Amino acid sequence: TNIGAAPRNYFSSNEHFAKSAMARYRPEEFVKLVEKYGILYYEKKLGQLFCTDSAQRIVDLLEGECREAGAEIRLKTKIVDVTPLERPEGTGPRYRIVTETGEIFAESVVVATGGPSVPKIGATDFGQRLAAKLGLDVTPLDAALVSLSMDQKFTGRFGGLSGVSVDTEVSVGSQKFRENILFTHTGLSGPVILQISLHWFPGEKVRINLSPDRPMEAHLMAAKKEGSQKLVRNVFGEFFTERLTEKLCEEFEIPNTPIAQTADATLRKIAERTHRWELIPAANGGYGKAEVTRGGVNTDELSSRSLEAKKHPGLFFIGEVVDVTGWLGGYNFQWAWASGTAAGLHA
Question: What is each CA distance from 324 to 68, 115, 302, in whole angstroms?
Answer without folding.
Answer: 29, 12, 12
